[in-house]
Amino acid sequence: MKRAILRIGHLIFNVEIADSFLNRIKGLSFRKMLSMSEGMLFVFSKPGKYKFWMVGMRFPIDIAFISQNKKVVDKITLELGEEYTPGKEFMYALEVNKGLLKDIERGDDVEWILMN
Fold first, then answer.
1. DSSP secondary structure string, the chain?
2. Which end of the chain has less neighbouring CB within 10 Å, N or C?
3. CB 19 within 8 A of CB 2
4. Rounded to whole angstroms, how far apart are CA atoms 100 and 113?
5. Is the model's pLDDT at 116 over the cut of 80?
6. Class for the domain spanning 2-114
7. How confident is the model at residue 40 (pLDDT cuts 50, 70, 90)?
8. pTM, full prediction
């Protein structure tokens, strides 16, 4: 999987890029954990309202939904067994450990640099 360094607000994460259908379906399922500086960035081919679910997940996560112009449009914490579809369109979604995005607000800028 491709990797990037991503900044959202004052936070920096080393993220895996899930930019194919299969990688997005698999996501973080069946992983035991993430370190506090890791995450996964989901990249879609066009803006939309895509559903996220916790199938196969072993830990709760925060998700920031990011617009095509790389601004946060929504965020949520998902517990095990939950699912969520944002009310606003987004093109990217960042998944990290629960609680890490508590200070992130709608409208915050997001930047990333591909590593490979």
1. -EEEEEEETTEEEEEEEE-SHHHHHHTTTT-----TTEEEEEEEEEEE---EE-TT-SS-EEEEEE-TTSBEEEEEEE-TT-EE--SS-EEEEEEEETTTTTT--TT-BEEEEE--
2. C
3. yes
4. 20
5. no
6. mainly beta
7. very high
8. 0.95
